[in-house]
């Protein structure tokens, strides 16, 4: 059975060419939201491989599969620095946990909030920016209509595919928004295809240079 988002995205002739060659997985909840934020902080300015190593160390430090907020009760900045995190990242992670506890937040409460409410809520936590929130909305909360126009991968893919000829950031984002309007309410899936497209192009170039 055809996924519901395809009926919308396939109307875009350029995007449909990508969809025919790339497969993506359905959005699925994989981790508690507070841990998704923790992972986002760990990953900032690190390669995917290094970030995964450090995040695994954080999980091992907690020593609980449930990954509840209470698992952090005995964790200090020094503990987090000991697994390879910087002072600022360690503080940011504990900020997230303190924020969740103080505001009595849990996944059930968060999933009832709109994208706009969640963006305001999460960006009020020191260490969490707009892009991080968008990634949480897309991959941890399965929100289907998120469009991270500041993401370099999305920008590069759209400039190449839709032949957007401008170096002006404001104009670029305006053109991107105009194109993405046709993808609503499934812009998240369109972005996933654009990321996969960029990965495929990078892989192809690498093989050609070998």
Would you mind describing this structure in some detail?
It contains 12 helices and no strands. By secondary structure, the chain is an all-alpha fold. The protein is globular and about 55 Å long. It starts with 5 loop residues before the first helix and ends with a helix.
Features:
0% strand, globular
Task: Give the gist of this structure.
With 210 residues, the protein is mostly helical. The chain has helices at 6-9, 13-19, 33-43, 48-62, 77-81, 87-102, 107-110, 115-123, 130-140, 152-161, 169-180, 187-209.
What topology does this entry show?
Blueprint: H1 6-9, H2 13-19, H3 33-43, H4 48-62, H5 77-81, H6 87-102, H7 107-110, H8 115-123, H9 130-140, H10 152-161, H11 169-180, H12 187-209
How many H/I helices?
12
**How large is the radius of gyration?**
19 Å
For the terminal residues, how far apart are their CA atoms?
A: 40 Å
Mean pLDDT: 92
Could you describe the largest sheet, including whether it forms a barrel? none
């Amino acid at each position: 059975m055809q996924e519901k988002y395809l009926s919308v995205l396939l109307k875009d002739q350029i995007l449909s060419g990508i969809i025919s060659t790339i497969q993506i997985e359905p959005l699925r909840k994989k981790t508690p939201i507070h841990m998704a934020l923790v992972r986002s902080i760990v990953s900032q300015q690190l390669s995917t491989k290094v970030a995964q190593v450090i995040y695994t160390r954080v999980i091992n430090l907690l020593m609980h599969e449930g990954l509840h907020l209470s698992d952090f009760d005995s964790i200090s900045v020094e503990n987090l620095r000991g697994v390879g995190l910087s002072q600022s990242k360690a503080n940011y992670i504990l900020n997230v946990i303190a924020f969740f506890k103080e505001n009595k937040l849990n996944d059930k409460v968060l999933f009832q909030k709109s994208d706009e409410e969640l963006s305001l809520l999460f960006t009020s936590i020191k260490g969490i920016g707009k892009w991080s929130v968008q990634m949480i909305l897309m991959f941890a909360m399965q929100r289907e209509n998120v469009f991270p126009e500041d993401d370099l991968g999305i920008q590069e893919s759209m400039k190449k595919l839709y032949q957007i000829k401008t170096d002006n950031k404001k104009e670029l984002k305006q053109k991107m928004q105009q194109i993405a309007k046709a993808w609503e309410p499934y812009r998240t899936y369109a972005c996933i295809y654009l990321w996969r497209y960029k990965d495929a192009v990078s892989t192809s170039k690498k093989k050609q240079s070998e």
